[in-house]
């Protein structure tokens, strides 16, 4: 099961590389309401990961603390190959760092826009994976509530 630990805030090492715990932080992969998702590398294993960096102050201002706690608790329960898996949660005084499995294929939305449409074979392939993930979640009494092409990573 993923661990939850407290980590010092981002530290700077020689060469001005930003680090959080054992992770070197790289480029921004995406942005959301409460923070950013960054590419990172585990310096102990060389595993490439995504780190969702949430701003505690923004979360508190919008009274979303309980929602974020619930999201993390649910993600700890989920370990399935068609769902992005939570690896670890770290925290500093001002930030929450959610370490996630890195998915590099982009968003389904961008793929649909780029292709215009899928072949029946490709649509069947992705639909199977999506339904497999949703069934897994529903078997655990988890409902996604924001299922849309922008939130489906390939």
Report the structural category.
alpha+beta
Average pLDDT value? 89
Measure the end-to-end span.
Answer: 24 Å
Poorly predicted residue ranges = 1-15
Shape category: globular
Order of helices and strands: EEEEEEHHEEHH
How many strands in all? 8
The number of helices is 4
Strand order of the biggest β-sheet: 1-7-8-6-5-4-3-2
Beta-strand content bin: 25-35%
Alpha carbon gyration radius: 17 Å
**Major pleated sheet:** 8 strands, mixed
Helix content: 25-40%
In short:
This protein has 154 residues and is α+β, with helices and mostly antiparallel strands.
Label this structure with key terms.
154 residues; disordered N terminus; alpha+beta; 31% helix; 8 strands; 4 helices; globular
Characterise the protein shown here.
Strands 1-7-8-6-5-4-3-2 form an eight-stranded mixed sheet. The protein has helices spanning 56-61, 65-77, 108-115, 120-139, and strands at residues 3-6, 11-12, 18-20, 23-31, 35-42, 48-55, 86-91, 95-101. A hairpin with a 3-residue loop joins strand 7 (86-91) and strand 8 (95-101). The chain is 31% helix and 31% strand. By secondary structure, the chain is of the alpha+beta class. Mean pLDDT is 89; it is low at 1-15.
